[in-house]
Design goal:
493 residues, alpha/beta, 7-stranded mixed beta sheet, 37% helix
Amino acid sequence: MQLLGFDIGSSSVKVSVLDVASGNTVSSAQYPEQEMEIKAVKPGWAEQEPELWFNNLKEACKKAVSHPDVKKETIKAIGISYQMHGLVLVDKNKAVIRPSIIWCDSRAAEIGNKAFKDLGPSWCLQNLLNSPGNFTASKLKWVKDNEPELYAQIDKIMLPGDYIALRLTGDAVTTASGLSEGVFWEFPKNAISDKLMDYYGFDESFIPKTMTSFSDQGTLLDNMAEEFGLPKGVKVSYRAGDQPNNAFSLNVLNPGEVAATGGTSGVVYGVTDQNVYDDDSRVNAFAHVNHQMPSNSLGVLLCINGTGILNSWMNKNVGKGEISYPEMNDLAAKVPVGAEGLTILPFGNGAERILKNVDYGAQVNHLNFNIHTPAHMYRAAQEGIAFSFKYGMDIMNEMGIKTDLIRAGKANMFLSPIFQSTLANVSGATIELYNTDGAAGAARGAGVGIGIYKSFEEAFSGLKKLEEIKPDESVVEATKEAYEKWKQALNKL
């Protein structure tokens, strides 16, 4: 048997086919090859068309299942991973009402900050485990206040993965994990928060049917099977936001385990069984994929918006798109630790949670026209990203989340030796890299959800550690000195 994993990112859509018996990925494809457009109609806004995700998914799926090792007739289930916190609105005909307001859009930050004060910081933190902040519920309130004619057409609100599943199966379904990432979920009640819904004036009928992350969430429609080149009867049996799914793909399910990723945004995600929160909501706690299965499993999420997108900006604008990422890494490696005083704050992709939802923009500090070259810029950018991870990890440590061992897929920023070593040296953590990604993780989740895998242990039998990076004592001190200079620049904001 084989399983499909869909990963709906903001840069591209990836599809993987997993062989059940071996646990190995037999085929992967992504579409488009270049990054998807993010529309910024106004500063701080970020929108994408859900139809774009769907069409790109279809292209990626056709490409993945055309591989000679894929036996389409044996594909039994689909798992969906998706960019978190996005808002998709559909009417009674299941048609999209407006472009999706995606995760890095900052327009609702003040709405959420006001709700935090009005509802009471203590109540929000103890019950929602977060400030309403710039999350999905606050984005819906922005639509209610600013686009009432569109708001009046809403039948269901959805996260990006919910919408993709709706298109595939015709069923409007969401999950407790998804509702918690939108800050609709009240943890002591283990249900949708009536108090938040009443405060924002939302109708609870907007919320789709709520199911567990691993469950029968619908069957592929016959016309969708034909469009995607798949057999009839395939089940959708798993869905999760990209960061809970990334942790799941690395078998991070138990308290004390930590996962990381470095795509467009960067994340460190630690699992706990305690209802913990940060008083300033700089890191956030959401229901993990195995919440209530049977434990109170939560994921504490540190998110840095400006991660891989900064490295991509460097490639396009400093490198003029004329050199590859490995070539950028080779140039950066020729520059000493600390980039000879050059520091870059990577906060140029919307309001940053670790900075209390303020959008400071990215900043380059101490640029010396007589010393610094593009190679220094490449190194300072990667160091700045790693340093922002360290800054957030210190907040997690204060909450009791240990970050001594980090698991990550060997992809995106974790392909860079500069980034790997800088993060290990500044944090003191050992980093383990594995042969997995979000799409492969979603496929494993589908196998658990449909019961093909009888346990998590069975699902992860094919997961292999590829590499281990430990702190290099010869440069730890220099890295920490560079971090302190970086932090000095941050503290001046």
